[in-house]
Amino acid sequence: MLRAFALLLLAAMVSGCGFKLRGSDGQFNMPFKSIALGFALTSPLGTELKRNLRAVGTEVVDDPAKAEALFEVLGETRGKSILSLNAQGRVREYLLTYTLVFRVRDRSGAELLPPTDISLKRSITFNERQVLANESEEALLYRDMQTDLVQQILRRLAAIKPV
Question: At residue 19, what are phi and psi to the nearest 5 degrees?
């Protein structure tokens, strides 16, 4: 009986329905062939977005006049605030935030994507005896939020309807 159930479960898993989210395979169809990014040259977020755009076949150009689309960064902030305290009044958890506000315009200046705000939050526990480990974990969480932010930007860029 158990064997039959296991075989039935295995058959159901193998046959799967084929459901797949749009863009979940990492392939995005951008509505433009080239884009200029408004990030500073040293921005890690800009570097990762540039790499991902090139991976999906979109040319990233430095001169906005040569680009079909212009990605403008209106604001990028990272924050850290106290989330909870322990009984002695010391910090137990922090809330890390990463916010990006941007818009996308075409070559003529028409707005393809209005100002868009993406805000990510992660909580991190704090132990005063392990300060270096906490700093490493914080850096890792910011890097994870950056990757998540890039994926959300790519999905929003792919959803733009050309004018």
Answer: -65, 135
| Rounded CA separation 122/80 (Å) | 10
Q: Reading across the β-sheet that carries 111-125, which strands appear in turn?
A: 59-61, 34-37, 69-85, 91-106, 111-125
Q: Count helices and strands (H / E) in the chain.
A: 3, 5
| Backbone dihedral angles phi then psi of residue 58, each to the nearest 5 degrees | -95, 130
**Could you state, in chain order, the average pLDDT of each consecutive group of 10 residues for the chain (163 residues)?**
69 60 62 93 94 93 92 95 90 94 93 95 89 87 96 94 74
Neighbouring residues of 1: CB distance < 8 A, sequence distance ≥ 6: none
**102, 71 Cβ separation under 8 angstroms:** yes
Q: Please give the single-letter amino acid code of residue 92.
A: R
- The whole-angstrom separation of Cα 149 and Cα 45 is 8
CATH number at residue 51: 3.30.160.150
Judge whether 33 lies within some domain.
Answer: yes
Q: Dihedrals φ, ψ of 129, to 5°? A: -85, -15
Both tokens of residue 47? 């570097």
Structural domain of residue 85, as residue ranges?
A: 23-158
